[in-house]
Amino acid sequence: MSDIFREVEEDVRRERLEKLWKQYGDFIIAGMAAVIVGVAGFKLWQHYEAQQQLKASAIYAQAMQLSDGDKADEAAQIFAKIAKSAPSGYAAAAKLSEADALLAAGKTSQAVTLYKAIADKDTSTLGSVARVRAAWAMADTASRSDLQALLAPLADGKSAWRFMAREILAYCDYRDGRLKQAQGEYESLANEPAAPQTLRQRATAMAAFIHTGGGANYGTVPPPAAPADASVQKGNAPQ
Predict the structure, then answer these.
(1) Would the pLDDT of 128 be above 70?
(2) Which of 5, 112, 128, 157 maximizes the CB count within 10 A of its CB?
């Protein structure tokens, strides 16, 4: 008896499935097709992205070789092209490298402009690096107030870049003859346990240099006095 009920139940279930398939079968097939096409498209996109990254990597390496081989102008042009067409990661790095190449080529103004553009747009580590490099590129000519304004985003007490910002401003004080202020800041940096070791070493050296009078201006060395009789110098002494 139970077998009869089971057969009836299976027939009812089959009939329901057939009815559902007739009503929604086309939608089910379309949905499955969409999933398959979507997966295939994603795989193709991944392949394309990988190829673009490989291409960008090869061109980036070529530009780096030019930069290392004292062909900074050519390197800057290639980096500029990468920045326009490469995947986002390579494009961002290429912009920074382009600025580095411009600076190496003696085009300081263009390099600083690009560094600042990167720093204003990028709030990640890349932007902080660009900000520090812009400040160092300007360190010999810019006013202290301009450098302070540029470095302000790095001056936060929690910023990992705050010590580099302080080092640049200390150099600015040294450059402008504010030796006591510069020495104090260098000594403070030298004793900062959280500062990078290489920066502490530079700060120690600069503090010692200023302390021993290295920053004092002793004027220019006067030219040697001319001999009383030029004929003696020429070996034409009178007989």
Answers:
(1) yes
(2) 112
